[in-house]
Amino acid sequence: MASRPLSKGQQNFIWISIACVDFLKLPLKDILSNQIKPTDLYQRINSSPTNRKDYLRKEQENICFIQPPGQPDYNDFDVTLLYTLIRNLCSVSLNPTSLNPTRGWGKVPDSSHMRIGDDIERLRLMRNKFAHANSAGIPDAEFQVLWNDLKSVIQRIQTFMNSMGNNVNYEQKLVDIERNDFGYGDLQKYKLFLEATLNQLKEERIKDEQEISITGADRVVWGEKTCFETDLKQKETFRWAISWQRVRGSVTNQIDISKQKYSDSTRTQLVIHSVCKDDEGEYQAVLARESNGNKRKIESNAIFLHVMGERPDFEVWGVTTEMESITIHYEVKNNAPGVKDIKWIKNGEGLDFETQKYVGGGLSDSFLRITSPNEADKGTYSCTLTNAVGFTSKDVTFEIPKATIATEPKVYLGYTTQITSEISSTLPLSKYKWQKSFDGNEFHCIEINERKYHGTNNLENPLLVISNTTSDDILYYRLSVWNIIGGCVSNTVYLNVIGNPPNITCSHETCFESRSVKLIAKVYLYDSCHAIQKVVWTVNDDEIDQHGFGVKFSKVSVDSPCLTIHNVNYLNAGSYKLTAMNAVGSITSDAIELNIPEVILAKFDEKEDGTQWVTVTVKSIPEPFLVQWRKKEEKSDMFQPINVIAKEFEGSSCSFPHPVLVIKESEQLENFTFQIKIQNFIGTCEKTIQDLLNLVPGAMKSENDSSDDINDGSLNETYNDEVAGIKFAILFDDLADHFPEEKFQKLKDLIQSSKKVNDIKSLNEARSARDCFRILDSENLFTKSDVLFVQFLLKRTGCEELEHNCVEYAKGHRALGFYEKQPEDGFKHVYFHVTGDLSNFNKEKRRNIRETVAAMVGCKTDRVSLNGYRHSESFIAIVSIEVIYVGKLVAINKQDRYRFVRLDIDYFTVDFIKVILKISQESQRVDYHEHVQKTEQRTTIPPLERTYVPFRVDASNRVLHKIEDEESMETSLKRQRVDYHEHVKKTEQHTIIPPYESTFIPSKVRVDTSTGFLHKMADEESMKSSLKLPFHKRFEYSAHLKSSFTVTTSRIEHISCLKPNRLWFTTDTRIKEIDEDGHLLRELSVNWTHAGNHTLSKAGDLLFKNNNDIYMLSSSGEVRDLHIHANEFSCIHSSRLNGDIFVSEENSIKRFSDKGVKLQTISTLKFTNGSQIVTENINGDILTIVGGQVVAFKSDGQHKFTCPGEHYWSDFFPLRLCNDTFGHILLRNIIHTCVHLLDINGHLLAKLLIHKSYNGLDSKALCVDEKNNLYIGCENKIYVYTYLSDTAITEHDDTVIDSEIPCDI
Q1: What are the tens digits of pLDDT across the range 640-684?
Q2: Do the Cβ atoms of 379 and 397 come closer than 8 Å?
Q3: Residue 1249: CB partners within 8 Å, gap ≥ 6?
Q4: 3-state secondary structure 295-308
Q5: pTM of the model
Q6: How crowded is residue 1127: how many other Cβ atoms within 10 Å of its Cβ?
Q7: Which is nearest to 483 in space by CA: 368, 592, 623, 373?
Q8: Both ends of the chain: CA-CA distance in Å?
Q9: What is the DSSP letter of 623?
Q10: How far is CA 758 from the centre of its chain?
């Protein structure tokens, strides 16, 4: 007969029964076993300070207190025994605080108590609760609470046990219980278990029953009365005092039953009137007596009193504005005790419900309606509900809306733009209107349905969209919004529509070998909003048909706008222009005229010795391939070339663009006809000197008769004497009258220390500034044509206003003085440092500097002006040139440097860039294979010779020492280097020997012949298979000092080098460039320098950081802001693969394009300490140093490897890193003075000893150029090493290298 089916409640009862009878033993048994092994239980009970009879019943003692060699079986222990042993024996073992309950054993833990002892108490209480369970069934709601509590406790105990080294899964056992279905027979069985458990608890209670206990309700409704009564085992308690106490947390309060709150209470009964939340807590009765000086105290059981009831529950769940009214919807919940009163107020005053203004608002209502709302109804409405517990208030505020609108910072012509809004309103919006105005005062509404405008129907945050913006949209805009009680107007925004057509700069190059001319055009934008759409070249205003002319003209495009004209001849003469177009408009460049050469007389000088100097200016596009001076006699028809190096024409030259002819005797002009002949691909120009002189009226006059074309701020040997005398007298008098008396002594000291005044006696007797100025006038140090010295004195004494008077006088009368005029729009000042005295800077020298600058940058002389002079060691000549030419000046070549040096100019500055013209030895280079004495020379190993290095390595300090004898040298060589061609057989494995002795771990390495990379071999099979591969290059690793530079700095922070002939390094607040001979070329002044603050692009452009922004100094001299912002310690690196820019920050590495667009962010957060140096390997791996580790990421940002990692090295802290062209990773170790060489996957190949031992902290800089020369910066020196020697081997040679990697570093 089938078993009767069980109800859901009965099934719940069985599941709880199984959990409490069978399952709860498992975690308790495991906890006891973890703390006390069965073999140790007897000794632990025996040595316990508590007598076992105080906590173990006889039957419990029989199964657990077994004398060795016998031992108990924990599987026989029930829940009660397991709990008793844990409580009395384990609470003091190992870590007491982790096992003891928060409130102590036998107490009910709070929900916030999460110690393991608290969960053991919860298991005990759960078992006790099971004993009082209703066998008829457990309701689902109650079961779910019990079961979820059990799961939470079991999950925490499981986590604890697994953390202690156990492997348990209690959660699965609970799942298995839930999966079982039980029948009626199971129900009867577990009823018996229930009865047995209840009897057991009674027995325990009898044994553990205290002499006093209390009874009473543990849950009381707020406001009602409750009572606790005592139950005494001993009836004769008249000698005992009985008191009552309440426990809240760790605080125990004695109850004074004489208070009104506890009226009607007796010594055996506690009565609490009008129970409230303050009465919650544990209540106990306490027996106390004193006998013979001994105090005894017995506490009863504790009952925790829960006060049931809450303040009124009131919820406002919506506000609506239908039917020309505002309705507040609310709900009063029926919780105990009941609500007695409801009250509505507005802004602190009660509402008048007698009028029709307010409807509803009572306890039985669910709304309060405000009829016919207007602006007077704005404010805060409060509803207060009151019951026996207290009161609850809710506020609702109604205000007119507030609106704020914003537009994009830049609105570009032809683009679609949006004006967004943020609306703050406590009531739903009823309508809105966008408005516009021409003057910001009178506004008109915008019709959203117009073709020009569209928006959204969203009343929350309206949006105005303006499509295809034009100049007509440059207006003021605002937004008006309303809700049911009123409206407001937003702020006003001004829409500034911007846009620019392209910009064009043009130049040209001539290639004589291919008879071609390249018209170089640079098309750029002031902003990147309107992309360049098309470029077109024209000749004589006709568009060039690139398809019709075959290969005559090169193809041009937006990306490559330069035009090359091949096989140039006279047919290609004409005016060439480039037109570039974008959405804003088009722009046409200045014309580049291809024509026969043009010759202009630049200068005709007749010197005192009778020699005549003729200087001409040749203008020629293409550049001429022939410039020749010629002459013929009067009766001859043939011109003969002149030998310009002959003595009779000494000083002559045929240099383009300023050939010079020197005629020693003036009679030659009468007896000979002199001609200059210039040829280019277009044609020939021939001009005689007589023709050139006739073209220039007054050309034969002396220079002093010609006017000076320099701007009014220039110096001149002449001055306006008619006015200057009066003006100078006024200046003299003003300076004498207004010079501060307190600075007079300083003025005298400056004059005397200058050693310029001869009459020292008069100077000592001077009693005023007027006396001093009179002495300066008498010694021609302060005259109407020279105020330089007085300007200096006024500047040093801090008399700025008086110095300004001198400047104005000098400018107005062209006297000698220092000043600086502001450059015109589109021009920039360049500051040339001239050695010498400003008083000797005559008109010829000024003209020379202007002509030299103009010739160098390729502009007309009248586009270059002198705008003033500054103080310096000598003086600064301030030259103003157009901004577009500044780059050419910064990228000056060696030949043009010499042209400036001949003008006594040793350097110039533009913004923060200083360009050195007069070559000085910034660093002292030592070339070791040329400058070291033969007896002291350190020999490097050529790749194909068996010459050995006469050094040994001191293993204690890792320093190279010279080996004096051959025997020592041979011994040293055996452990330092192996020459593979001579010492290794073809079938043998190749060994790399590190340059010092240590313990080695053999590791197979193979060479990838496609890339030259070295890879670790996983097994012997893969090693053998790799032997069949052809091998093109093999490396031997040995550092050889090639050269060194001593620079004028105390510390080198960083080095960037692409080609061996150029090197950038940082020192202090300077980034300096030197050439291969150590000559200082340029230096950049930046706000702060550190490692990694500059890098070189694959094109050789310098990327550097200044004021936390990244700039690029191109090879053409242009400085460009890349619009990439970095933080103070960010390091940067330019990819040699694609030009991307990497920026390391505190917790990430960011990748940008060369245009400044962010492409990728790689998080380094989990490696801590922030990333430092960043670089990119040739396979795209991104490497950085993070917290003393080298971390590599794949190009997609995924972590690849970390070193040192597991099985890596100790005593290793990398400070700098770089890569070479073969993918090797070079690391500079701060701990030891060597460079670690790793393969592309981070495996150690070798360690390279550096030239000398020095402090690792002072040897930070590390760099490798494209020729794989290694640069190391140490204090004030840069060492250059070679470290790769390669040997060509045959196609069938071995390709496996057995790399012995040292265990310790």
Answers
A1: 899 988 888 888 999 999 999 998 876 777 778 889 999 999 999
A2: yes
A3: 953, 958, 959, 960, 995, 996, 1039, 1233, 1234
A4: EEEEECCCEEEEEE
A5: 0.42
A6: 12
A7: 373
A8: 82
A9: P
A10: 63
